[in-house]
Input
Amino acid sequence: MAETILDSRMLRIADCVPSGAILADIGTDHGKLPVYLAQKDKIKRAVAADINEMPLQKAINNIKTNNLQNKIDTYLTNGLQGVEKFSPDCVVIAGMGGELIEQILEEGTIDKHNVKFIIQPMTKEGSLRKYLCKNGYLITDEHIVKEGKLYQIICAEYDGNVRAISEAESLVGKINIEKAEELFGELIERVIDRTLVKIEGKKRANLDVTEETDCLKQLTDIKEKYYGINK
Output
């Protein structure tokens, strides 16, 4: 059995998985995450799910190579549909666009109660956080990882309660703001730069920039507070 190596992004996601979890890895690709966690004896069992046959076959081969057929099932499905039959209490949806993750959550047939969701969008973090808050999810933790670019990892649980979130909080994460870790400075700078570009583009098109200007002020205030803490 060869030891599975994960990059820093996937390692941080693996760290978020609770010990003894029944894991559903959605969009599993080669199945590296469940194989790694099974090798570390961190999970009770897992299902590696994917919508496409080719990556799922690669996961099947990886699982067989590592003798983990008794611990990891595979399932060809669209997102979370039908995954409830494996009774997961932890769901990972990583490496996809934020809009696709929203769609997967919206169309999933799983009972969302008592499940830890670990979500890592490649795009549209702001839209995704708004979706979570509007649709009854409590964001319980957040992480920033640098692997060439910056990635945001969002941990959430469903309790049915709607929550307010500001535009700036949706972009960089309320918990990330509170943690004020080293990579947050780089994240806030990048988000401010993107906001400035968006404002300039809308100005050239003679479009209203009130919302973007308000967001920029929120982000600037957060940045000043961060650098005040980290002097």
